[in-house]
Amino acid sequence: MTKSLFPGFDGLMSLSRREGVDIRPTLLRVLTDLYVQASTHSDDEQRQFVELATRLIDQVDDATRAAVKARLAIYPSTPAPIMQKLGLTAAQEGRRVPLAREIPAPPPAPAPVRAPTEAEQRMASNLAMQPKDAAEIHDMFFRAGASDRALILHNLAQTPLKAAPRIPTVRAKRAIQILEMAAIANDFENFISELGDSLILPSRVAAQIVDDPGGEAIAVAARALDMPSPNFQRILLFFKPEIGTSVDAVYRLSRLYDRLSDRSALVLLAAWRGSTLAVTRAKYQSTLHDSERQRARASANQPRPGVQPGSSPAVRTGTDGSDR
Length: 324
What we know:
Helix 3 (24-36) runs parallel beside helix 5 (62-73), helix 11 (188-199) packs across helix 12 and helix 13 (216-224) packs across helix 17. The chain is 65% helix and 0% strand. It has 17 helices and no strands. The protein is globular and about 80 Å long. The relative contact order is 0.10. The chain is an all-alpha fold. The longest helix is centred in the C-terminal third of the chain and has 40 residues, at 262-301.
């Protein structure tokens, strides 16, 4: 099981201990999620899960341990050593599961200050940065390699460019949940749609972010949503297998994400939005230019009338001076 899903498991563990990027909570959550997706397991799969999970349970924080315990408590095929490790009791056949008490509704929150509409956010971002500059930043980022992208993001934090406004907290939390579920299900269409809606980006740019092979673009989008680091790591492991199976790639992007500032991400988000306006203007400017040339050509080829408007017609006279 672990050979196909986590070929670099031991390497990730050693990097975590040596470099200080603690991904053990994420690995335990992902390992558990993968295990409970199947109703039955072979003896070898169960043995490997027990071996790896037992190592990680003692090395993670209480919140992660509680989340894993909750997942395995309702899974009917949890191995006995893991149940003992987590203090779980095996369910007895025919025993009714006690129903949870109703959770009281929270008190109504005070009315929040009106958040800007999507149109207002779009206008604020586009007016803060010239479309030409936004398009240049957009193209420069996607053309750059990994080291140059890290330098670009570092420099964006120091620029006087105005950043895009923050995504409202309620909207961002909802987007994070939807994106993580879509990543686990490998649902690219919904992932791109939700990313575009939450960041106010057209589907073309959202697809470019998702399809980016380096992974830095997704890191910027996640930081713009203020996504917690464990959620971002789970998206990498599930949604980007070419990254999740590489020890170096997971470590590099996890370190980049932890060092990425909110301002850098929001400035680049403003550039992504502004680049769309630049493309639209270029498209319509070309059309208008062609129309002007056609009108000018038609005007030049039009024959001039023999009698100019407003002039008097010529009067022919006879030899004696009288009109004929």
